[in-house]
Specification:
The complex is a heterodimer of chains A (about 160) and B (about 200). Chain A is an all-alpha fold and about 160 residues long. Chain A is built from eight helices and no strands. The model of chain A has no long low-confidence stretch (mean pLDDT about 95). Classes of the chains: A mainly alpha (about 160), B mainly alpha (about 200). Chains A and B meet through helix 2, helix 3, helix 6, helix 7 and helix 8 of A and helix 3, helix 8 and helix 9 of B.
C-alpha cells in the first residue's frame, strides 16, 4: 500500500502485513479519512476558527485520548494557540474559555453534553454555524483517534 | 411542548436542533449542492440542514459514512449496526441508538439482541460473537479508549478475521463522530400529548 495517511503513520502500519492487506479493501475509506482531516483542519471557509486554533484543539483532543504522538502532529500547526494543546490550559488568556470548555466536554464527557452547553456558547457570542464547525472538528477527531487505536491493536494482535 | 427522550429504545424519536438549521431560502449554491436540493426534491431533514452550516465537512462525511456502513465484504451489515449501537450507548446518543438498533432488528429479522441490550445494558448476555463485538465497540468508544489486547483476543476467539475486525473498528469509530453531532447539536424528542 503506497497510501500515506495520518492514520497509517500513527498506527505504525507497514506494507506487506496482514493488517495492510485488510486495509487494501478499505483504501477508499482511508483516503476519505485523510480528506476529512484536511477539511476540518484547513477548510476553505474556516469561519472564526483559524487553522492554528483548529490544530491546537485537535492536539488537545488527542491529549485527552492519551495519543501523544498524534497530539504532537497537530500541535506543529498550532501557531499562536499552542498553549491550548495542553489540556491543563483553560483558554481564558486567549478569551476562548467557553470554546475550550465545550470542546473538552464534547471530546471526553460526550454522554453528559446537554442543551445548556450549546446555550453557553451562544451566550458567549458564538454563531450557530460556528458551533457546528466546532462539533465537526471534535467529532472527526473522535473518529480518527479511535481508528488509530484500533489499527494499533490489530497490528499487535494479527502480525 | 416536546419531551426530551432519555431512555434507549428502537422507537426512533424526532430530532430537535439546539441551533437554527440552515434556511433553505437563504442557502448558498454550495449548500444546495451538498443537500441535493432540486425543484422536485426539497425535503431535507433538520439534522442535515443543521450540518449544512459546515458544508465542507458534510460533503466529506456522507460518502465516508456510507462506505463504512454499507460497502461489501468484511463484517456483516447487522454487526456494523451492533457496533454503532455500542458506541451510541457509551455516548448516550438516544437518537443514533434507536436508528441503529432498529436497522439491526430489520437486518436480523429479530429484535432479540437489541431487546436484550436495551433491557440489560451493554453488558447483556449475548451469543459469544455478538458479545465480543459489543464489548470491543463499547471499550473503543470510551475517552480514552479502553480497548486492549484482551478485546482483540475475544474477537479472534469468536471467529472474526482481519477484515471483519477492521470493519468493527471503523463502524464503532464512525459513531464516535456521528454521536458527537447528533447528541451535541440536538435533542431526541417526542411531542407531548395535548388535551
Amino acid at each position: 500500500m503506497v497510501l500515506q495517511t495520518t492514520v497509517l503513520t500513527q498506527a505504525g502500519i507497514e506494507t506487506g502485513g496482514a493488517v495492510s492487506s485488510a486495509l487494501e479493501h478499505r483504501a477508499n475509506i482511508l483516503e476519505m479519512t485523510q480528506a476529512a482531516e484536511e477539511t476540518v483542519l484547513r477548510p476553505k471557509d474556516a469561519g472564526p476558527w483559524s487553522h492554528g486554533l483548529r490544530a491546537a484543539l485537535a492536539a488537545r483532543i488527542a491529549a485527552h485520548n492519551q495519543e501523544s504522538d498524534l497530539a504532537e502532529h497537530y500541535a506543529e500547526g498550532a501557531e499562536g494557540y499552542a498553549a491550548l494543546a495542553n489540556p491543563a490550559e483553560d483558554g481564558a488568556a486567549l478569551e476562548l474559555a467557553e470554546v475550550v470548555a465545550f470542546m473538552d466536554k464534547v471530546a471526553a464527557e460526550t454522554r453528559d453534553v446537554t442543551a445548556a452547553d450549546v446555550a453557553d456558547l451562544q451566550a458567549a457570542g458564538v454563531a450557530d454555524a460556528d458551533i457546528v464547525r466546532l462539533a465537526e472538528l471534535n467529532a472527526f477527531l473522535a473518529f480518527q483517534i479511535r481508528v488509530i487505536g484500533g489499527l494499533r491493536l490489530m497490528k499487535d494482535g494479527f502480525e | 411542548m416536546n419531551k426530551v427522550i432519555k431512555k434507549f429504545s428502537r422507537n426512533v424519536p424526532h430530532w430537535q436542533p439546539r441551533v437554527a438549521p440552515v434556511d433553505l431560502q437563504e442557502a448558498s449554491e454550495d449548500q444546495l449542492d451538498a443537500l441535493k436540493v432540486t425543484p422536485s426534491n426539497t425535503k431535507v431533514s433538520e439534522y442535515v440542514l443543521t450540518l449544512a452550516h459546515d458544508v465542507e465537512s458534510l460533503k466529506v462525511r456522507t460518502p465516508l459514512f456510507n462506505a463504512i456502513m454499507y460497502d461489501r465484504g468484511g463484517m456483516s451489515r447487522a454487526e456494523r449496526e451492533l457496533s454503532a449501537l455500542g458506541a451510541s450507548m457509551v455516548n448516550h446518543c438516544v437518537y443514533c441508538a434507536a436508528v441503529h438498533a432498529m436497522r439491526h432488528a430489520q437486518l436480523e429479522k429479530s429484535t432479540e439482541v437489541t431487546d436484550r441490550v436495551f433491557l440489560e445494558g451493554t453488558g447483556a448476555d449475548l451469543a459469544p460473537r455478538d458479545r465480543a463485538i459489543l464489548d470491543f465497540a463499547v471499550a473503543l468508544s470510551e475517552c480514552p479508549s479502553q480497548a486492549g489486547p484482551e478485546h482483540l483476543d475475544a474477537l479472534k476467539a469468536a471467529g472474526l478475521d482481519e477484515a471483519e475486525v477492521l470493519d468493527l473498528i471503523l463502524s464503532a469509530a464512525l459513531f464516535g463522530w456521528a454521536n458527537r453531532l447528533m447528541h451535541v447539536l440536538g435533542d431526541p424528542v417526542r411531542p407531548e400529548a395535548t388535551g
